[in-house]
Predict the structure.
Amino acid sequence: NSRELFDYLYHTLRDRKREEFRVLFLDAKNRLLAARTLFEGTLTASGVYPREVVRAALDHHAAALLFAHNHPSGDPDPSPEDVAITRRLALVCRAMGIPVHDHIIIGANRYFSFADQGLMRRLEEEQRGLL
């Protein structure tokens, strides 16, 4: 669940001065295979490339993915760019047969979960019409 994911990542992401985008690679039973920081950015942004996410997922033989990144500002609310990249990543990964369960944004002692807010479900419904 999102709280466990937050607890797992909070101490390693909370004091970062730059955004870091991490991917957690899961097996078919949703057990953690690996967690990697794939992208590092600036104080306010991180370039995230779907092709690199898919490549890493295939390298790890992942059956599903979780995404997480930090907001050095401490405010975990998603930016329009966060929503857009989550949409793109979910679409590309779904096309490859790799579901994305959640994307959490870690701020100062709190987090935002796309799944908890129903956004992952909405993205999946949108994508059904595209694929």
About this structure: The helical segments are 2-13, 50-59, 80-95, 119-128.
